[in-house]
Each structure stands twice: as structure tokens, then as C-alpha cells.
Amino acid sequence: MPPQRQLGLVSATALVVASMVGSGVFTTSGILLADLHSPSLVLAAWLAGGVIAVLGALCYGALARSYPESGGEYIFLARTLHPAAGYLAGWVSLLVGFSAPLAAVALAFGEYLREGLSFSTPRLTGSCLLLAFTAVHAIHVQRGAWVQNFAVLIKLLLIVLLVGLACARLEPAPQPQGEHVPIAAFAVSLVRVSFSYSGWNAAIYIAGEVRDPGRNLPRAMAVGAGLVTLLYVALNTVFVYAAPVEALTGKIDVARIAAESLGGASLASLVTALITLALATSASSMLMAGPRVYARMADDGYVPNHPRAGDVVVSYFSGPADLYRLHTRLEHCGGGRRVGPFATAGRTFRGCAWMAMGTLDFHRRCHGHHRLHHRTPADRECLGSGHDSDRPRGLAIRISETQR
């Protein structure tokens, strides 16, 4: 059954913006100042990161025109490189791409509301956030997109309000001319900035539900990445020039410090509300995009398929179930000892590989020896017409002619 394309350009663009604008833009510039020692270089790093994101969006747009199917990198790697590559990417996406970031975003959301919700804990608050958006997106695709579009609109208006109020009071100090550009430090800063720009590819995960995907998907990613670049440069112009460099260098809460310097506690409260809303919309975007990968993997036979085969409702509830257990194990592996990011990444990727090989062995036992292949147009036509229904469905499983 072909997917119902219920989403348009606005919803796809809003998904990209919601996925990109999280807490990173409000916390990164202080660290960049510690490396670069110059507000102008910090802004150059943000601009360069935006250019890279737009170029990536253009590249993904070309792929989306050729493969307008939901699933993201899972589909792209399986179609262009090898199904085994897409298979492994799907499992990495299951834990690293969506589940772990969702846990981190939900916990951060709970931390920001700790004072306002003293009767709750950050974990409980974050869990309620995930359950609320899970229900919103699972009940109805289009109405869930409307909720997200409205939240993104409010977020953009708050950003414009913050920039407008701050620029009216901004008095930047003169900067030294002919400053030295530390190439190595600038390169490291680009890596830090790139995390704040992640999410520019979010529209590809819902490609199968976007109307006129060959036109709307590339535009959504390019417009979304370009708009976020402008917002990031504007916000960070306010942040790095609102207070002396010494007061901002190395600080995580650079946005709050800048807001307090310009407008006192009231403007700082606006920044806190904006960060909280950004975290909420980021969780919403991941809950909207992530289950499409799992649903496509189930449709292709890589993970257990539920009775509602063409639906993603069950996938919404399978993702958040173990988020906090996953976050706790990643953060406190080894008897409470906090592990480094490379050790955490290594263990996570090894776990994805083990689970991937486990499901592959399961398929071998259930279907006999098989070979990986790309589904051809003839296969799709055959499956769509109802013939050959006794063969396993899926991108990667096809009984070899010699085994039939």
C-alpha cells in the first residue's frame, strides 16, 4: 500500500527547524570564546557551520529526489551502497540517532523546569513530555504536524523578540584589527558548532509522507538550514557582544549571562523559556521522525512487525520505553564511574553491531540462507500486485534461486 502523503512544505520545513534549534545555540559560544578569544571569529565559525549545513541539505535533496521514501540514511545507504550498510545504519539510528538524544533532551527539559515544578523530578517531567508528544504524533500524523508547526512558530517569534530587544540595547565594544586566526582552534570550533546544526536532514525521515517529495524535500531542508543559520548568527551576535569577553569565556550559560547583562532578570527569564521550548520542540521532532525508521525496518523484516504493519503507531511507544535506562547505563557504566565520550560511543556502536548480527541470524534461521540485494522495480510491481505473496517482504531478504 503506498504511503499517504499528508504533509506539505511548511510541515517538512518546521520539522527541520524544530530538529536543529535545541539548546546548543544557547550554550556553545562561551566555549568557542575560550578557544578563539574573539567574538568575530566565533561568529565566523557559526556562519561557516551554517554554510556546511546548507551544502549538506542540498546533497541530501538530490538523494531525496531519487529515493522519496521514509527511513533516512537507512534507505539511502541500502539503495546506493549496499543493503547491509543500510541495515547497520538502521540499528545505529535506533539507539544512537534517536533514543539516546531523546533521553538527553527529556532530562534537560526536566532540569530547566525543576524550580517551576518542585513537586516533580526531572525524569518524571521528561517522561511526561515524551508521552505527551508520543500521543500527539501517534494519534494523527497531520494534526501532530500542526501542533509542531505551531510550537515552532512560537519559538521563532520568541527568538525574533529576544534579538529585537537585545539589539536595541546592544553596545558592542571595539574589536582589535588584524587579529590572528588560529586554524586548529577554528577547526575544533567547527566541530562543536556542527552539533548545534545537526538535524538539517530531518525531513528525509518522513519523505514517504510528504506531498510532491521531489520538490518539497530539497526545499524544506535548504530553507530550514538557511533560516536556522540566520537565526544562529543573529542570536550569537547578541550573546558575544552583550557582555565583556572575560565574563563569557568558558561559560555554558552564555545566553543567560548575556540576557542579564542587557535586560536583567526579565530578559534572562525569556531566555530560559526559549531554551525550554526549544528542547520540547526538539523532542517532538525526534519522536516524529525516528519511528519512521523503525517502521520501515519492520516493513523490510529487520525488526518484529506488528499487526498494524503499515502504521507507525506501535513504533512510537517502542522507542521511549527504555530511554532512561539507556541514558543511565551510558552515563554511569562501571559502578557509577562516568565514562568518556569515545568509550561511550564505542560501546554503543558495538552493541548496535551485536544486535544487528543477532537479527540477521534470526532471519537465517527463519528463512534459510539468503542473500542481500536491492529490490528492483519489477519486484516492487510484483509485490504491489499481490503476486509472490509467499516470499518474505523486505529490502534485504530474497530467497536465492538455487535454494528455491
Number of domains: 1
Name the poorly predicted regions: 307-346, 369-404
Helix and strand content put the structural class at mainly alpha
Order of helices and strands: HHHHHHHHHHHHHHEHE
CATH domain class name? Mainly Alpha
CATH architecture: Up-down Bundle
Q: Could you describe the largest sheet, including whether it forms a barrel? A: 2 strands, antiparallel
Anisotropy-based shape: globular
Strand content: under 5%
Mean pLDDT: 76
Quick one: how many beta strands?
2
Computed over alpha carbons, the radius of gyration is 23 Å
Sequence of strands across the biggest β-sheet = 1-2
The span between the termini is 27 Å
Structural description of this entry:
The structure is a single chain. With 404 residues, the chain is mainly alpha-helical. The chain has one domain (9-335): Up-down Bundle (Amino acid/polyamine transporter I). The protein contains 15 helices and two strands. The chain has helices spanning 9-20, 29-36, 39-66, 73-80, 83-112, 122-139, 141-169, 183-197, 213-241, 245-248, 254-299, 313-318, 323-331, 341-367, 377-384, and strands at residues 370-371, 398-399. It has a two-stranded antiparallel sheet with strand order 1-2. α1 (9-20) packs across α7 (141-169) and α3 packs across α8 (183-197).
